[in-house]
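A reminder from the course coordinator: this example appears on the midterm review sheet, so study it carefully.

Given structure:
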């Protein structure tokens, strides 16, 4: 997959994450910014897992994973908003969830998808 195709797939995948207007409503824009940046990093990692796949196969792999990622983002936003310092809570929660989410996706990645570096 060339760089332009990779970036296009990333943009389309990220749009599926941020298209949900209620995703980070519990947070201010400043509090949500690191969460969305984290989500974009995860999206890019997921898209890398689909390099070499045609569009139909790639999206068959991406859709369920993006759905899981969207749920994670919403949960982190909601839980962090309840903390006395939501911004600090976002950062602390992201530390914990990065390894958890990556491990989940690695465990559930089909053998024919090449594992890439992050």
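Designed residues:
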């Amino acid at each position: 997959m060339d760089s332009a195709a990779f970036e296009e797939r990333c943009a389309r995948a990220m749009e599926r994450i941020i298209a949900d207007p209620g995703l980070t409503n519990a947070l201010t824009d400043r509090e949500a910014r690191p969460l969305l940046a984290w989500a974009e990093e995860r999206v890019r990692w997921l898209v890398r897992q689909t390099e070499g796949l045609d569009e139909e196969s790639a999206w068959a792999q991406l859709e369920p994973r993006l759905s899981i990622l969207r749920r994670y983002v919403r949960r982190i936003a909601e839980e962090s908003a309840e903390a006395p310092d939501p911004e600090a809570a976002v950062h602390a929660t992201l530390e914990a969830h990065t390894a958890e989410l990556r491990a989940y996706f690695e465990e559930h990645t089909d053998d024919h998808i090449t594992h890439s570096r992050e």
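The mean pLDDT is 87. The radius of gyration is 15 Å.
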